[in-house]
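Severity: low
Component: inverse-folding endpoint
Summary: output formatting inconsistent between runs
Steps to reproduce: submit the following structure tokens with default settings.
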């Protein structure tokens, strides 16, 4: 039966392609999931691309999937080479599917697998991440057409221990991994890449110039200084072009600034390179070119520092898919005037064009990439190393300030927006996960505990119950210490922990939480307050799950009487309790009482929500079950057909 009515307390203020190819009379679905992450000045690394193609072609007859690892330090062009190979294979039509997975963490991998599962089986509901991986494995293993999976940024050694659980075992499959962790080379055949070939580097550094002999020598000197690293060369090119520098002038400025920046940079950000005709390795750093590019932001526009702060704020979110909507819908009641994003607000209205102009400027300097979704909305992505650099270059005080600002934007976004779209939910989860991993996140302020409450609620809604429990317990401890055990925020958290424990099947813990919340709310607000009644309703649901039907009936009747008095008989909360009483009476065998409750709930829901709302259709389905019990099979068939037609219309829409 369909039961509704668990009440979650929310304090106030708180590029894919899917095509169909007809081959004879067989319809073959093809899936190409290739993100739009190409750098502005892309140069095809032909030798590496040819080698990659040959590795996969030579292993096409094996009985297990071919695994190739692109290995090298960050900024070496691994992701760009993988993207170029994917685009080439898509154009060739040799693959039925290409799936791109963010492998930067285990949670990201599970989310990517769930996205794949939903593409392959759009009608299925996936609750268990481990089961989702099995579903994807079973579906793709049954294919007789070739496919490719790309595991991008598999850089965390701890996640390598069970990565084989995510690799699918099929002779028709191919797996491509990008990683800067040396241990990943054990996964399969490897291609190491950090440095570009000289001709490729020159093409990237001088895309529109025909240098003379002297300029060519200087260009080669620059490539040597940059270690022939693609990301560093690309950003140096952007700096030279924007400043219209002669190559020798760039060399002078680079050398002058490098020493000071190196002194401020942690040792792990340096790497060593053996320069020609030198006996010792020289320390180099990508940070030099990033700092020079950052210094150009906003020049001539009067807000240079602010644009640098905007870019830095991005670094405190997950580096992929930072959506404009995180900042454009800020609540008027939330004070974010100190946020760098305030420069894009004109009299309380978000200035999309001004924001777009700033993002375009950042992309021109190779500091980020962006794309559009939903017609006009901008989505930003940073290279993971750029994101980390932007954070570590700050002192501890500024890190805490930027983190607090990012949390405020994210919390405001979670509190003020409906997140019905699956991709939107996954992006929000990525940002929450990223923030929760930051040590400075764990402060002891009241705002921190409210953030834990908000994150816990979102985790719970997305089925991440263990993470939700961790956040709720953190919020509860903070509220108890700050405001006491009977404060409304404390009791709201206790109530939500009860719902969480009930969802986990920990019914005794849930009952303990509900009774604590009920006693506190009765004392603070009185027995007839709507928040009190919500917890009464939740206790009714719990007692029903425990089989304590008389206790459940007592709770439901108390909640119903109070809700009718507070909200009226046609309020949706009242009708939820009426529907739940119908289910209870049916379980008790009181079929006439159940029918009376269902008909009352149905009439109210049709009037309040409409005949095709999911809650209305739930009651229609419950009536069908009841009529079946009563032997009224024609009436039951009519109800089932009504519910089925509504559900089919909902899914088709």
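Observed output (run 2 of 3):
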């Amino acid at each position: 039966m369909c039961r509704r009515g668990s009440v979650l307390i929310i304090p106030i203020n708180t590029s894919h392609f899917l095509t169909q190819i007809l081959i004879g009379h067989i319809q073959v679905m093809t899936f190409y999931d290739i993100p739009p992450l190409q750098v502005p000045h892309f140069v095809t690394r032909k030798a590496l691309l040819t080698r990659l193609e040959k590795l996969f072609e030579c292993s096409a007859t094996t009985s297990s999937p071919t695994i190739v690892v692109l290995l090298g330090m960050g900024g070496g062009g691994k992701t760009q080479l993988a993207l170029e190979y994917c685009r080439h294979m898509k154009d060739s039509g040799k693959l039925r599917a290409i799936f791109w997975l963010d492998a930067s963490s285990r949670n990201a991998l599970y989310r990517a697998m769930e996205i794949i599962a939903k593409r392959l089986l759009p009608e299925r509901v996936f609750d268990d991440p481990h089961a989702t991986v099995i579903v994807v494995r079973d579906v793709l293993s049954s294919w007789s057409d070739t496919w490719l999976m790309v595991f991008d940024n598999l850089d965390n050694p701890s996640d390598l221990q069970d990565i084989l659980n995510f690799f699918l075992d099929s002779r028709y499959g191919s797996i491509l991994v990008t990683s800067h962790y040396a241990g990943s080379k054990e996964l399969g055949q490897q291609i190491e890449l950090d440095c570009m070939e000289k001709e490729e580097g020159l093409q990237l550094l001088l895309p529109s110039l025909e240098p003379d002999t002297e300029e060519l020598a200087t260009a080669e000197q620059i490539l040597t200084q940059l270690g022939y690293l693609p990301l560093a060369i690309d950003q140096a090119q952007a700096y030279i072009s924007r400043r219209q520098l002669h190559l020798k002038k760039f060399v002078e400025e680079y050398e002058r600034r490098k020493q000071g920046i190196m002194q401020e940079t942690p040792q792990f950000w340096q790497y060593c390179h053996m320069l020609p005709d030198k006996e010792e390795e020289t320390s180099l750093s990508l940070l030099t070119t990033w700092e020079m590019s950052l210094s150009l932001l906003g020049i001539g526009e009067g807000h240079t520092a602010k644009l640098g702060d905007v870019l830095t704020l991005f670094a405190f979110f997950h580096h992929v898919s930072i959506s404009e909507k995180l900042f454009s819908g800020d609540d008027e009641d939330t004070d974010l005037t100190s946020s760098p994003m305030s420069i894009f607000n004109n009299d309380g209205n978000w200035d999309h064009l001004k924001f777009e102009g700033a993002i375009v400027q950042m992309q021109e300097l190779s500091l980020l990439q962006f794309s559009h979704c939903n017609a006009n909305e901008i989505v930003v992505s940073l290279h993971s190393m750029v994101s980390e650099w932007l954070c570590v270059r700050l002192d501890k005080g500024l890190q805490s300030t930027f983190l607090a600002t990012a949390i405020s934007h994210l919390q405001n976004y979670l509190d003020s927006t409906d997140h019905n779209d699956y991709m939107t939910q996954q992006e929000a989860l990525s940002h929450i996960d990223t923030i929760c991993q930051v040590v400075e996140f764990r402060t002891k302020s009241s705002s921190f505990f409210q953030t834990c409450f908000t994150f816990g609620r979102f985790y719970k809604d997305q089925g991440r119950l263990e993470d939700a429990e961790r956040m709720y317990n953190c919020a509860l401890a903070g509220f108890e210490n700050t405001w006491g055990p009977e404060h409304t925020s404390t009791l709201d958290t206790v109530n939500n922990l009860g719902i969480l424990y009930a969802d986990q099947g920990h019914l005794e813990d849930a009952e303990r939480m509900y009774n604590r919340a009920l006693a506190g709310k009765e004392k603070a607000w009185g027995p007839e307050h709507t928040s009190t009644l919500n917890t009464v309703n939740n206790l009714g649901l719990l007692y029903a799950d425990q089989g304590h039907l008389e206790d459940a009936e007592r709770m439901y009747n108390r909640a119903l009487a109070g809700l009718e008095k507070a909200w009226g008989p046609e309020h949706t909360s009242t009708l939820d309790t009426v529907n739940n009483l119908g289910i209870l009476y049916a379980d008790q065998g009181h079929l006439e009482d159940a029918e009376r409750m269902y008909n009352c709930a149905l009439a109210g829901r049709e009037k309040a929500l409409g005949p095709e709302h999911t809650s209305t259709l739930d009651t229609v389905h419950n009536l069908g079950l009841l009529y079946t019990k009563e032997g009224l099979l024609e009436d039951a068939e009519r109800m089932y057909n009504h519910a089925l037609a509504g559900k089919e219309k909902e899914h088709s829409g």
